[in-house]
Amino acid sequence: MVLNDVLANAMSNILNNEKKGKDSCIIRPSAKLTKKVLEIMKDHMYVGNFEEVKDGKGNVLKLNLLGNINKCGVIKPRHAVKINNFEKFEKRFLPAKDFGIIIVSTTKGLMTHIEAKEKGFGGKLLAYIY
């Protein structure tokens, strides 16, 4: 199995397990970016707790699912966004106003598009969840 985008694999794995109605899933390999994205998803009540489990190869993440995700995915290509252009991408990736989040990589770390707008940061779009 060839892994080109660790985050994309993690998001599709989460969505597939969520659609099957499972209450947990295993994400491999464990990457810093994936952990940060899961942290934001956990803060916004899309997923439950997760823990890193050591196995011989790259470590894996054991994630508890809450059944709160309708759709999630990565944004490719990773568009650069200025502060005043978030609305265009909200319309493209989210189904309704104030419904769901877009995760943005800024100079101050990962945050939601809402936080980025409040703090006045632009950045690169990574993923969306609703």
Write the layout of secondary structure elements.
Layout: H1 6-20, E1 24-27, H2 32-43, E2 47-53, E3 60-65, E4 72-74, E5 80-81, H3 86-93, E6 101-106, E7 109-112, H4 113-119, E8 123-129
Describe this protein's structure.
- This protein is of the alpha+beta class.
- The protein has two domains: 60 residues, Ribosomal Protein S8, Chain: A, domain 1 (2-Layer Sandwich), CATH 3.30.1370.30; 55 residues, Dna Ligase, domain 1 (2-Layer Sandwich).
- The strands form two sheets. Strands 4, 5, 6, 7 and 8 form a five-stranded antiparallel sheet that branches. The protein has a three-stranded antiparallel sheet with strand order 1-3-2, with helices on one face.
- It is globular.
- The chain starts with 5 loop residues before the first helix and ends with a strand.
Task: Provide a quick synopsis of the model.
The protein has 130 residues and is of the alpha+beta class.
CATH class of the largest domain: Alpha Beta
Q: Report the radius of gyration as a whole number of Å.
A: 15 Å
User: What CATH architecture of the largest domain would you give?
Assistant: 2-Layer Sandwich
| Poorly predicted parts | none
Helix coverage percent? 25-40%
Q: What is the residue-mean pLDDT, rounded to a whole number?
A: 94
Query: Count of DSSP helices?
Result: 4
> Remind me, CATH topology of the largest domain?
Ribosomal Protein S8, Chain: A, domain 1
**Which outline best applies?**
globular
Number of domains: 2
Distance between the termini: 28 Å
Helix and strand content put the structural class at alpha+beta
Main β-sheet: number of strands, strand sense, barrel status?
5 strands, antiparallel
Q: Report the sheet-strand fraction.
A: 25-35%
Question: What is the H/E order?
Answer: HEHEEEEHEEHE
- The count of β-strands is 8
